[in-house]
Amino acid sequence: MTQVVTVPRPIRPRLALTVVGFGALALVTCLAAPLVGSTSISIARAFDRSIPFADNVDAQIFFLARMPRVLAAAVVGAALASAGVVLQALLRNPLATPFTLGVSAGAALGAMLAITLGATMTIGPLSAVPLASLAGAAIAATIVYALATRTGRPMSTSVLLLAGVTLNSFFSAVILMVQYMGDFTEAYRTIRWLMGDLDVGSFGPILAALPLIVAAVVIFALLPSSLNLLSVGADSAATRGVNVGRAQRLAFLSSALATSAAVSLAGPIGFVGIVVPHLVRLMVGVDHRVVLPTSALFGVAFLVACDLVSRTILAPVEVPVGVVTAMIGGPFFLWLLVRKG
Amino acid sequence: MPISIQHVSFGYDTRSSGSGTFSLCDVSTTITRGSITGLLGPNGCGKTTLLKLIAGVLRCGQGGIALNDRALAQFSKRELARHVALVPQETHPAFDFSVLDMVLMGRHPHLGTFQLEGPEDLSIAHSCLAATGTAHLAYRPFTTLSGGEKQRVVIASALAQEPEVLLLDEPTASLDLAYQLEVASLLARLNQDHEVTMVVATHDLNLAASLCDSLVLLRAGRILAQGPTRDVLTASMIQQLYDVETDVQVHEPSGHLTVVPIRRRPRP
Fold first, then answer.
1. N or C: where does chain B have the smaller number of CB atoms within 10 Å of the terminal CB?
2. pLDDT tens, A194-205?
3. ipTM score for this prediction
């Protein structure tokens, strides 16, 4: 109980140093990950502009075969990690995850229905499954939000939490029923979807998810100092000049946007939204102005690395990335907890 | 008049708050600059509600509150927080903020959305820690402090807002005798040295007697009496306020009133 907080440095150099450091880590991970795979390639040749792209096999493997998957991991990792940070502060609960609010269960139900009913509708680069999961996420988020704000008074974070958890269980039950009613092939596809998969095939799905991610990031940028105060208490925040209702709405909206974009792109990949923020807090302290950007960057590195493990450790067989995040994240998290205590 | 409260009524929405259905009813008072006003009354009489209304956390249902002759509704949240700070009964941060972090959060209303605190804010935070005798705790995690230390740190955080008006909700509840005295003398000193106007909600009648220039007595959401401490803090008023028979005497060595409760005596 007598540990001393070890970061008395002023915020500006601390923020600059961590963003540059973790930014470099994220960048290096994203550039290194596409080099690894069944065919080994050279980064020098991949970036060699003197060879025409059509003849440059290394560049084709780097940019066309492997980069979309790495970028998907980067986007999903950043989105889930920052959504986790925002929700943990909004709900004043360090155990909250991006999936606590039922948004991911809604997305999963949407995807299940699309798979089971064999839906084939597409809009632009979005095929039926991500579209249906986005719709499911939006419906779930709307239900939870409507319940938490139903009386016209400030948002009740306890209702938000309870409604989210309840909706999660409810949707999960419906998903089980849909699986049970479906045939074996569909059931396998749905189970595989639930394990998370970053193999998006091309840049199209990433570009489609990008508007939601960008909107979420813009809102995230407004939030950090409000999140500090909200995590101390709504009344404390209000008396220090935070527009509590607005900050809570923006926090909910941005995390719902980021989570639905991530889940519709790659399925519900667990552990990222809770392990990354906690690791980051252990490394850089609890100030959200540092924690939020750092978590986004560390989320990139974390999920890209996990996906690398998922496609190489048992190659040519792929381990679902959701299994890898849990296998790496869980024990590492416990180890850090024990070490800290 | 820094704070003028005119015919303020407030009701919690019964559908959403469940148990908290009491309200304030037609409360009017003025709080003079540089004074320490005590807010007395039984549990649930509306003390905290009135403080939250003055702090702009809640909005008046009817009537109005003005600060320096300007209605609270005309202040932006940040602007109001530069004038009025509230020290709540208890503070439980969800994360392991350091004491310095907590005090620096008091600078929030002085910073823009994207502005980070600078050297000036840091030196204000350190002087607020010094003023509350908590400078040596600056780098300790807030959650590891004792109750009295926490209370002083939260007061330091409120001071970092550089407010004209400091609202305190039972600042000495749950503190031991030594800390009660320490917080009381801290408030008196801040009032004198920094000319901070204070409104203190409290159940401690002797604290009110020693600290406050004037008192507002609230019962069931209505003002029972108000005025200078010596005029208001009488045995008959306390009887009406709490249904308790007391002996109120001037304590010569300390020079202020003392209240000794004798027995509970419900009104006929």
1. C
2. 888 888 888 888
3. 0.88
